[in-house]
Amino acid sequence: MFRFVQLVTAAALIAGVLQPPHASAQDTQLTVFAAASLKNALDEVDAAFTEATGIKVMVSYESSSTLVKQIDQGAQADVFISADLQWMDYASEHKLIKPDTRFNLLGNRLVLIAPKASKIDKVEIGQGFDLAKLVGDGRIAVANVKTVPAGRYAKAALEKLDAWTAAEPKLAQAENVRATLALVARVKTAVGIVYETDAKVEPKVKIVGVFPDGSYPAVTYPVAQTADSKNAATASYLTFLRTNAAKAIFDKYGFNYLIKPGS
User: Fold this and answer.
1) Containing H/E element for 82?
2) pLDDT per residue as tens digits for the range 57-116
3) Do 115 and 144 meet the contact criterion of CB atoms below 8 Å apart?
4) Angle at 33 between CA 32 and CA 34, to 5 degrees
5) What's the burial of 30, exposed, middle or buried (CB within 10 Å: 0-12/13-18/19+)?
6) Which of 150, 125, 162, 158 has its CA nearest to residue 220?
7) Cα dihedral: 14, 235, 64, 262 (round 10)
8) Radius of gyration over every alpha carbon of the chain, rounded to an integer in angstroms
9) 3.40.190.10, 3.40.50.980, 2.20.25.90, 3.10.20.340: which CATH number matches 110-210?
């Protein structure tokens, strides 16, 4: 009973802190543009935010490059969450975000996956790693290596490990990391390169190798309010992302939480 009272009290305190000024929670919603790899975890975070505040969250998930270009072309969003620093820097340079609201929220790791029933297993990834030989006549699923963060991280890793030249002709490039994951899950490719958190939410794939730290830039998810947002609920949402409640959810899905929770 005491524990129940504690939880109710905590929820009430969060709701009080997060309640936007001069706005009715029941009549308020906000729009978030978020990297595709965040879907499962962020859906749960948003549900917790809505439960605490009554504010509905509408989310558009896509590659960071697609989302920032949509914002640049006038799409209405209150919050942008990128899967790399480069596209958030682009947003900042083009005055698409409010710089003083920006912070780095999460980290992730790059892994090699294969279909669950694949004979490929326990791959040691290091310098001179011959990915092309590993897949034989098969294909390698990756996100677009020119524009999508997951694809750019993958290319950087393969170049660093001297595996790019041989692997490039065998790439099957997808529009975002979740589409990459789907190619492997449907056994359309022999392997794929995705984030660790993506692999963990898809039961039809298995992690067969982990790319070593330092072989690609640190995977970082920055967050910011968009420049055109005048939604009073946005500040409350950004505050909620910094709470222990949000951290617990992101931790559960395997993300590296980069900031100290505020409450």
Assistant:
1) none
2) 999 999 999 999 999 999 999 999 999 999 999 999 999 999 999 999 999 999 999 999
3) no
4) 105
5) buried
6) 150
7) -50
8) 20
9) 3.40.190.10
Which amino acid is residue 245, in one-letter code?
Answer: A
**Tens of pLDDT, residues 197-219:** 999 999 999 999 999 999 999 99
What does pTM read for this prediction? 0.88
Q: How far apart are CA 82 and CA 104, in angstroms?
A: 10
For domain 2-107+219-257, the CATH architecture is 3-Layer(aba) Sandwich (3.40)
Beta-sheet strands, E only, within 13-67: 29-35, 56-62
Q: Do domains 2-107+219-257 and 110-210 have the same CATH topology?
A: yes
